[in-house]
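Hello forum,

I keep getting stuck at the same step: I have a sequence, I want structure tokens, and every attempt I make locally crashes halfway through. Rather than fight my setup again tonight, could one of you with a working pipeline run this one for me? It's a single chain of 373 residues.
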Amino acid sequence: MTRRLSYTSRARQFNARHPLFSQILAQVVFWTGVNILLASIIYLQTISVNLQHGIATEEMKLSVVGLICLFMALFYGTTQGLLDYSLEKYFFRKVSLGRIIVIKTVISLILLIMLFALVHYVLAATFIAPLFPRDYQSFTEENWSYLFYQFTIFYFFMTIVLSFILEVNKKFGPGVLLPILLGKYRSPRTEERIFLFMDLRSSTSIAEALGHLHYSGFIRDSFLDINQLLNNYSAEIYQYVGDEIVLSWQVGEGIKDLACVNFFFACEERFREREDYYLSTYGQVPNFKAGLHMGPVTAVEIGKVKVDIAYHGDTINVAARIQSKCNEYQKKFLTSDHFLEQSGADRHFKTHSLGQIQLKGKANSIGISSIER
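Reply #2:
Ran it on my machine without issues. Output:
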């Protein structure tokens, strides 16, 4: 069954396969655009001042500024991409948002000074001077100083803008911000999606044993570990509801390599790898139960004070009801027979049919099966 992937799906896949390159590319593209804007402002300002004082416009000298802006975009964007990727992956998992912004701002300022010095004393003399020898020689230290002040002020505010864009993109996930800006979800639209409801088993007894503070830390760490696997399986987080996490895929990317099924088992493997940490910290290892279903849903942008993309439809209700049957049948992973028929998962995993089951709130029974490795 071949389905054409949307822009959002392609963006998620690219980000999943090339997370580092994706970070660098986003930074380089943004700072290239920003520096083109800065060079244009400097150019127009120079023309305005020169015309006002009757001075001939020195267009060639502005070519020097343009090349400096290009060098800064490439080096600053690449370095920032590497830096953001490393910090997010290794240091910022449990750091507050305010502290992250302060740390990134300080590091960005230090980075800007270092790169500007590199462009000034090394790259300009190597690459720009041979192209425009006369204009480069007339580019005095005072010119460099004022150019540095312009870069510092401009980059400071643009860093805030970029941080905002990245945080919004992180909230909605890769590839969603652009469709929202274009109004894709302003009006309800039908999509075929897969939903996976993952709920912590024995959550009440764990909460009683740990107390509410340690239990919240336990849930936080569990969800952080689940988040580490999202990109590898093209998964989207739809909702966090207490100790439950709801994940979603467009049908094409969820069925491909059975990503939506493998994701659950990858989470189990992740928790096994981190067993020593959980036992030493909480005395418990996360153990989730899951329900999986696919079908049509309606997607629409809702809210004004807090904007979100909501999915409505029977598919979500059925997936939640399937997950609620796990305890009754002593199974950790249940799915609808409809999903098995459409995906062919029964040819790759051990499945056991539980027959036609009457779900709460449903007039008709539905075929359900368990999935095991």
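The longest strand covers residues 288-302. If your local run keeps crashing, start a new thread with the error log.
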